[in-house]
Structure formats: structure tokens, C-alpha cells
Specification:
about 650 residues; alpha+beta; Rossmann fold; Beta-Lactamase; six-stranded antiparallel β-sheet; about 45% helix
Length: about 650
């Protein structure tokens, strides 16, 4: 490559050598070289400070400097320009030292001619240019490493063919909590077994995946690693993948990467937890509404509370007037926790945390009950610390409290409180439904007793009064008309038998469980015998042999037949009544018919209490009931109950 447009600085104190060098390099061929000269080190340094040169030709022996110090001074001021040392000293050791200090070449003056000098200058300039290019490439590479890999939030490790860690970035130190110097040079297989796997929640799976990939020289599928928190290391989720290095300096080794997916994983976990929470609420809602027994409802609330809020013990308190009472509680016998309060009834004013819930109508969290002066002793006996409570609220009215306890201090979070509140609102509906059902059952029992009293008065009482009157009449006639008196006594006997049968039925109905201790056929026969004796219609009964029926089904069939016969007796004026129960392969059919006056089913159906009761009882056992009637054509009632 020609040296045209090359700026050359010659630092030489010998005028003869300067002139000779000028003649060598300023020939016509190289007229493009711009030459500047300096006779001292200081003059040379002044030139270097004032302008930039492409190459420097330096004599080490100057009036104001000598030897390697001259080279060092010029190198420091040359801004990286190549230096060729031209000296009268032929010391090879010195020449080697100059090259080691950065000189491009070392030329003894005695060996230099025009061709050698120009070649040396040309090579020096070219080598320098190449070095600049290489240096720039290295700087770019280092910048890539430092600015991208080292500052990247993707942890990167490079292993050689012996699986030694030859490089890792800063993110690796942050994620693993292990200093870089404790990783470099180590066999990754030993690191995995001794240190790395221990930082993950599933260490065996982690080590098995990586070591299997090492052995087979395979790519690894992307898999998630849960980093456990420790001193100097935060909890986080990482996604790992690695692959073998096929080419280059570390061919046969591996590159491993760990991407921080904590934020994404947090969203996934939160979404999954919310989905589980929603599913749990849905399942529990169906479970709570499937029963109307208050005790069973409370039991199901506490049995399923753990799906909503983890805890060690819990209780449900119900509020009545100025006091509340523990309706039900649950403890974990394995953990040793006990119920916080043992009293059955307590005043609201005696517990400030419940007062707070009652006043604000929002959940309350207490990190440590044993630090509360009021609750310290009781909480210590119960072995509980953390507490969260929520009001059981129905239409802005608090009907109770849900209390949840933990052995751990500060265990409960605002999220637990929010979920407990949602669960308490769900429980409020179930508790209120059970209470209303309980009251309706109590009312139904009162109504049933009133009906039995009416039946007792209408049938048995009147029959006994008639028997008494007829017996008195028979006594008066006994001596005068024995035959007439005997006839009266026979009628008294018949009426007494009927009254006794009716009394047995009434006593049977006073104990509902007795209705299921005999077969449906026997139950109908016992009920219909006294009815037949004192009713105007002729009754026909046909009941197949039936399997053992569920309690609610047998009682429902009996009550529906009872209600139908009462309606027939009061309204139909029938002459013939038939009750038929048939047993089919898949269902049981109850059919009740009469030849009475009938009615307009569409006009009466929604207004008749008796018909409504029959429909409700049929629905309660999942049966289908059909009531057909026309004025003057009697009535047909058909019920079909499918066997399970």
C-alpha cells in the first residue's frame, strides 16, 4: 500500500541522519508523504500536541531524553499512532523491549536503506490500522457483553466442553445469590448437586433435567424454576433453557439461560387463585343451599372455610338481641389449637374486636391476639395468635360473626379478609334460609297439631259423645225394652271400634317417624279403615307390593293421599273413590279418582290451598303430579315418582 497522504513525524537530533532519511522517503515515488521533524523530545511532544500524525520515526538517543524513557514519553503523547524506532544502537535485547513497549519495529541505522525504511513504515501504518479495527471490534464485542449480556436481566452461563463455568453475567449472581467468583471455573455438574439445586423449590426435578441434557448433549425444553428466598437472594420464578455449543472456542460446551418470569408467574398464580376461589364459592354455595338444617349448614360452613381462608381454628357466632353465642366451632386436633371462647353466651361490649366489626360492618385483622390486653389470657390458653373476623351480614343487618384463627403471628392478609367477607355474605343467605325453614317447620308443627286437634274434635270426640248418649239411652231402656237397648249397645260398640281406629291414626301422625315403620300399603289400610266407616263414599284400595321407599317419598305419598281424601270428603260429594298404587320397573304410580262434582281445574288450581300443598309435596320428592277435573265429571289425580 503506498504511503501517499501520510503524515510522518521524525524525531532525530543528528542533522546528517535527518537529511539522509528525508532523501530516502521524499523521493518522487513517495512525494505524497508530509514530513515534520523535531530535534528534541520536547519539540517532538509539542508537535504531537499540536497535530495528529499517521506514523512516528523515533531515535531513542536525544539531547533531552535517552533510551526506553524516550519511547514511553512519545507513546504516551502519540494518541495511538504507530512508532518505528530508528537508532544507532544494535542491541537486540533493547529492540525486543521496544517492541514489547508498543513499537511497531526496531531499525538499526546501519542496516537501513530506502526500501527497508519505507517497507517498515508502510507495514507499521497497516498493522496499526488493523489493530485499530481489531480494537474497535473487541470494544464492540465487550460493549455487547457488558451492555447487553452482563446488564441483561437474563442470567447467562457459558460452559466449556468439560462443563466448567467459563463465563457468567451479573444477573446470575442476583438470581442465584452466589458471587461470580464462586461460579467461575467450577464444574457445573458439581455446582448443581452441591449448591444450585438447593435454591429451587423442586431440586430433584431441576438437577435431573439439566444432568440428563448434559449427558445426552441435548437441548432442554423450557421449564419453570421456583427460586426460594434466602439471605442475599429474593424469591422469584425463572424460566430455564440451555443448548450445546456446536462451533467456536467453546464448541462441545453449553450455554444456559434463566429468564426472570416472576411478574408473569405472579399474574398466573393470582389468576389461578382467583379462579379456585370463584370455583370454591360456587361449589360451596351449591353445598350450603342443598340443606335447610341449621346445624348442618353451620357444619358445612366450617368444613369448607379452609378452601377460602387457610386457618387452624374457626367459629361461627350468631347474634341475638344484646348477646351473641358460638353456634358452632371447629379446631384442628393435630395442631393443638382450641376455641378462643368457651362461654355459650357473651355480651358484645366485652369484646372490642367484635365491636369494631359490628360498628364498621367490615372485616378486622389482628396480627397477634396475645398482644391485646383484653384477649391476651384467652388467646394464650387457646394457643392462637393471628385473627381475622368478618360480619355475617344480610341486607345491611349483622346476624353474626365468622372468626378465623392462626397459630402464626401476622398470618392473615387483606386478601384473606376480603375472601372471608365474600364467604360470610354467602353463608348469611344459607343461615337465614335455614332459620326461616326452622321457623316454618315449627309453624307447620303447630298447624299440624291444630289439624289433629280439629280431627280429634270432629271425629273421635264427637263419636265418643254419641257413644255416651247412646249408652245412657240403652241403660234407661234396659229393663223395659232389652232388644232396643241391645241394638243401641251394638251401635256403641261399632262406634267405639271406629273411634279407636281413628285414635290410632292420630297417634301415629303425632310421631312422623312411625309413618315409615310400616309399609305404604299397611299405612293406607290403617288410615282408610276409620274413614270408610264414617264417610258417605265407597272407598276402593289397591296397592301393589312395593320396595322399601325413602322416608321422604313414603311420607309424601301418604300426605298427598290424605289431602286428596280430605278434599273429596269436603267438596266432591262423591259416591265412589279409588286409590291405586302400582309398582313399575322404573317408577311408582299413585292414582286417586272420584265420581264427584269435579271443578274447573284452570279456574281453581292457583287458588286452592289443598291442591297447592299436593304439588309442593310432589316437587319435594322430584315427582310429577297431574290433576285433571271437569265440572260434573269427577277428579283424577296422578303422581309418578321415578325410582333412583
Amino acid at each position: 500500500m503506498p504511503l501517499s497522504n501520510t503524515r510522518l513525524l521524525l524525531i532525530e537530533d543528528n542533522p546528517g541522519d535527518v537529511r539522509l532519511i528525508q532523501e530516502m522517503i521524499l523521493s518522487e515515488v513517495y512525494h505524497g508523504i508530509v514530513l515534520e521533524t523535531a530535534a528534541t523530545l520536547k519539540a517532538g511532544l509539542d508537535h504531537l500536541a499540536a497535530q495528529v500524525f499517521d506514523v512516528i520515526l523515533l531515535d531513542l538517543s536525544l539531547p533531552d531524553s535517552h533510551g526506553l524513557e524516550t519511547l514511553r514519553a512519545v507513546s504516551a503523547a502519540a494518541s495511538g499512532a504507530p512508532i518505528v524506532v530508528l537508532t544507532g544502537n544494535e542491541d537486540e535485547a533493547l529492540g525486543l523491549q521496544t517492541v514489547q513497549l508498543g513499537a511497531q519495529d526496531y531499525l538499526p541505522k546501519s542496516d537501513v536503506d530506502s526500501k527497508a525504511l519505507l517497507r517498515s513504515l508502510r507495514y507499521a501504518v497497516e498493522r496499526h490500522r488493523n489493530e485499530v479495527i481489531i480494537r474497535q471490534s473487541e470494544q464492540e464485542y465487550r460493549s455487547l457483553i457488558d451492555d447487553v449480556f452482563d446488564t441483561s436481566m437474563v442470567a447467562v452461563l457459558i460452559l466449556d466442553r468439560a462443563f466448567r463455568v467459563v463465563w457468567c453475567n451479573e444477573a446470575t449472581e442476583i438470581y442465584f445469590g452466589i458471587a461470580r467468583e464462586n461460579l467461575l471455573g467450577k464444574d457445573s455438574r458439581l455446582l448443581i448437586e452441591d449448591e444450585l439445586k438447593c435454591i429451587f423449590a423442586d431440586p430433584d426435578d431441576y438437577s435431573a433435567r439439566l444432568l440428563r441434557a448434559y449427558e445426552g448433549g441435548e437441548f432442554t425444553d423450557r421449564f419453570e424454576c421456583h427460586v426460594l428466598p434466602a439471605e442475599g437472594r429474593a424469591e422469584r420464578w425463572l424460566e430455564h433453557w440451555s443448548q450445546p455449543i456446536r462451533e467456536g472456542k467453546f464448541a462441545g460446551g453449553r450455554i444456559e439461560q434463566y429468564m426472570d418470569i416472576t411478574e408473569r408467574k405472579g399474574l398466573e398464580i393470582a389468576e389461578a387463585e382467583q379462579r379456585r376461589f370463584t370455583d370454591a364459592l360456587r361449589d360451596i354455595s351449591a353445598l350450603l343451599t342443598s340443606t335447610l338444617d341449621l346445624k348442618e349448614v353451620l357444619g358445612r360452613i366450617l368444613n369448607n372455610l379452609g378452601r377460602i381462608v387457610p386457618h387452624d381454628s374457626a367459629s361461627v357466632m350468631l347474634l341475638e338481641a344484646d348477646h351473641f353465642w358460638i353456634a358452632q366451632h371447629r379446631t384442628d386436633a393435630r395442631r393443638g389449637t382450641q376455641e378462643l371462647v368457651a362461654e355459650k353466651q357473651m355480651q358484645l361490649e366485652a369484646h372490642t374486636y367484635l365491636q369494631g366489626i359490628f360498628a364498621a360492618q367490615v372485616p378486622v385483622i389482628l396480627p397477634d391476639l396475645q398482644r391485646d390486653p383484653q384477649m391476651q389470657a384467652a388467646a394464650g390458653r387457646a394457643n392462637v395468635r393471628g385473627y381475622v373476623g368478618a360480619p355475617i351480614k344480610l341486607q345491611q343487618q349483622i346476624i353474626g360473626f365468622m372468626n378465623v384463627f392462626s397459630e402464626q403471628v401476622g398470618f392473615f392478609t387483606p386478601t384473606h379478609a376480603e375472601r372471608l367477607m365474600a364467604f360470610a355474605e354467602l353463608a348469611a343467605v344459607a343461615i337465614q334460609n335455614a332459620r326461616l325453614y326452622q321457623r316454618s317447620q315449627e309453624l307447620a308443627a303447630v298447624q299440624e297439631r291444630q289439624r289433629l286437634a280439629r280431627d280429634l274434635h270432629d271425629s273421635v270426640s264427637q263419636t265418643l259423645f254419641t257413644c255416651r248418649t247412646m249408652a245412657e239411652s240403652a241403660l234407661r231402656r234396659w229393663e223395659k225394652d232389652a232388644a232396643s237397648a241391645r241394638a243401641l249397645l251394638e251401635e256403641v260398640y261399632r262406634l267405639t271400634v271406629t273411634a279407636s281406629a281413628e285414635m290410632r291414626i292420630l297417634l301415629l301422625e303425632l310421631r312422623p317417624t312411625s309413618l315409615t315403620q310400616v309399609s305404604l300399603k299397611q299405612l293406607f289400610e290403617q288410615y282408610l279403615q276409620p274413614i270408610q266407616a264414617r264417610r258417605d263414599f265407597q272407598l276402593h284400595l289397591a296397592v301393589d307390593d312395593l320396595p322399601n321407599l325413602p322416608t321422604d317419598v313414603q311420607i309424601a305419598l301418604y300426605r298427598i293421599a290424605q289431602e286428596a281424601l280430605n278434599n273429596i270428603d269436603k267438596h266432591a260429594r262423591a259416591k265412589q273413590v279409588a286409590i291405586q298404587v302400582t309398582n313399575h320397573a322404573e317408577h311408582i304410580r299413585l292414582h286417586i279418582s272420584d265420581d264427584g262434582e269435579g271443578f274447573d281445574a284452570q279456574a281453581v288450581g292457583g287458588m286452592s290451598l289443598g291442591l297447592g300443598i299436593m304439588r309442593e309435596r310432589a316437587e319435594s320428592i322430584g315427582a310429577v303430579i297431574q290433576i285433571e277435573s271437569r265440572v260434573g265429571e269427577g277428579t283424577h289425580i296422578t303422581l309418578v315418582w321415578r325410582k333412583p
